[in-house]
Amino acid sequence: MNGYDYILAKQTAWAANSGLTLVGSKGKHGRFAYTWELDQNLFKPLLPEVRKSFAAGDGGELGSTEFPGKMQAVHSSSALGVNVFQYWKSIKAVPVIATQCGLCRVGSQVSCDIHFEEKYPINDTFSYHPNIDVVIHNAPSVKI
Fold this sequence. Notes:
This protein is of the alpha+beta class. The protein has four helices and four strands. The chain has one domain (3-138). It is 31% helix and 15% strand. The termini are far apart.
């Protein structure tokens, strides 16, 4: 079994053990690996500014009235990013998580905010620029 299949099997087992009924990527069709509601796949509901970030992205993370969003997939990297990092943003303790990720020294106040679904252009040959799940920003006064 490859890594993707292993993670998907573990996550669908988690959903079953949690009493969640999964739907397909196209509702009644597609792989049944999506929660009915986004909040079922998140530890906490999206903060308003985080929801706005995902709504502005072009990755279809929030879905539509017809189909579930990519973030509703039990194997979603963006849901994982939100589940790990949104908490630290909400309690305004970005330096703590940045330190634990090895981005700065203990006690450093360089890291100041966490953003989700930020676009980073590569070049103009791509129709869509990559949307990065989680980005930790440093204070504007910090010189690299």
